[in-house]
Amino acid sequence: MSNQQESTRKSSDFLLLLLMSALVAAWGIAGALDVPNRTEAGFVLDRDHVISELTPGGPAERVNMQEGDRVIGIAGQRIEDTANILRLPRVEPGERRAYVVERGDQTIRYRPAFQAISPRAQHIEYLSTIVGLGFLLIPLAACLTRPNAATRILFLMGLGLSLSFFSGPYIQAYDIRSIAAVVAELFFLLGLGAMVHFLLLFPSPRPSLVAGWGRKLVYWPILLIWALIAWRILFTPQADSMPAFVGQFISGVGITVFLVFGLFLLLRNYSRTDRATRKRLGLNLMMWGTAAAIIPAAVARLASMVSAHTPLPGQDYYFVALVLVPATWALSASKSEHL
């Protein structure tokens, strides 16, 4: 390849990276700008559609809905009829929506007036957008300033995983909203696969990755999980149906396996690297940054499982520490010169 062709290829790659980043960032920022328009009824449902928590002084409490009520209908639709419920338009502030609940042997109808989500919830949404931009822009900066195989894969990881922090703007047309959700899920899952790909590549490539079949073992399961999620989004089986349960279970287990395998690879790579290499590539910082990122979220998750009504102080904000993952991983990847 001539110098001119190489220069043209690098310019094309540069523009493609910027275009992809701009599109994803625009999606996240548009979602943040839409936060003040979001509303809530002031209650939380568990998996059985039972009200598990009421917002003190919120719309539901003001009309005398109670914890333990089982919601069986929304706006004239059965709660199990997921497809029709998802097609309902977003409720505007002050607008009422009909709910039918079961309380013991009684069937009661309520029409709470929705209100804007709380300032706390809005702050959390804005922080989530900032963390998502961190996942997107920090690896992008590493890829542009120190381009190598590790930083390129890390950029793909950040591009995909950033979407898990972006809620995106509200799209009124249900079909377009569904297609956008399917595309976002694809990018997120590819980001998850890129995370495993990165850990197989850095600090030294695994033989399976060099041979090529290792990449297939990473990305083919990702596409299978995406197909299951896309089917659930586009065809929307009833919430209590067996196909919906099986699809949700398999996709949930698949994502969990990828996360656990990624953590295993991180620990394995660190333990098999000598001290001099750890220092040269910044692996100590990468390891401690990852620990500082995931331990608070893991502790908060365990605490909520043990006692959902006694949260840890400020646990809703623990996720902000996750931005340490792209920050410390990008620093390490940018030091790799042989990839």
Question: Which descriptors apply to this entry?
Answer:
339 residues, alpha+beta, four-stranded antiparallel β-sheet, 12 helices, 8% strand
Describe how the helices and strands are arranged:
Blueprint: H1 3-33, E1 39-40, E2 43-45, E3 51-54, H2 59-62, E4 70-74, E5 77-78, H3 82-86, E6 99-103, E7 106-110, E8 115-116, H4 119-145, H5 149-161, H6 174-201, H7 207-211, H8 213-235, H9 242-271, H10 275-281, H11 283-306, H12 324-333
Antiparallel strand pairs: 1-8, 2-3, 4-5, 4-6, 6-7
In short:
This protein is α+β, with helices and mostly antiparallel strands and 339 residues long. The chain contains twelve helices and eight strands.
Report the principal-axis shape.
Answer: elongated
List SSEs in N-to-C order.
HEEEHEEHEEEHHHHHHHHH
Indicate the proportion of strand residues.
5-15%
Sequence of strands across the biggest β-sheet: 5-4-6-7
The count of strands amounts to 8
Q: What's the total helix number?
A: 12
Helix fraction by DSSP (H/I, runs of at least 4): 55-70%
Largest sheet report: 4 strands, antiparallel
Rounded to an integer, what's the Rg over CA atoms?
A: 23 Å
State the separation between the terminal residues, measured CA to CA.
19 Å
Kindly name the structural category.
alpha+beta
Tally of structural domains: 2
Question: Which runs of at least 5 residues are low in confidence (pLDDT < 50)?
Answer: none
Nearest-integer average pLDDT: 88
